[in-house]
Design goal:
single chain; 108 residues; alpha+beta; 4-stranded antiparallel β-sheet; 4 strands; 31% helix
Length: 108
């Protein structure tokens, strides 16, 4: 059996409650199998010509390549940032059982 192509998708938000809402919504919608929240982290970035520093919460979602477009659409719709970070990194190796679980949990 061929393993699904899985992705780890990253975003950040400025409050722990917002991070949990984004995580729960993605899992409930089956666009992510799970989400892990960590933080606060310190983010330094350029925004509208100024260098900013902010505390943020990082959310890492596990999904499949096939479900990525739906996860991205969900994040862009549900996120309150003007330009939210949405970055996907391919999972190049992993436990076959876990990768199949990700696929099962994200099947519509």
């Amino acid at each position: 059996m061929e393993l699904p192509v899985c992705l780890a998708v990253l975003t950040t938000t400025d409050a722990e409650e917002k991070a949990e809402t984004l995580a729960r919504g993605a899992v409930a919608a089956r666009v992510a199998a799970c989400a892990q929240i960590s933080g606060p982290v310190v983010s330094v970035y350029r925004w509208q010509g100024a260098v900013e520093t902010a505390s943020e919460w990082r959310i890492q979602f596990k999904t499949t390549e096939a479900r990525y477009p739906a996860l991205e659409a969900y994040l862009l719709e549900a996120h309150d940032y003007d330009t939210p970070e949405v970055i996907a990194t391919p999972v190049v190796a992993g436990s076959p059982d876990y990768l199949r679980w990700v696929e099962e949990e994200t099947s519509p």
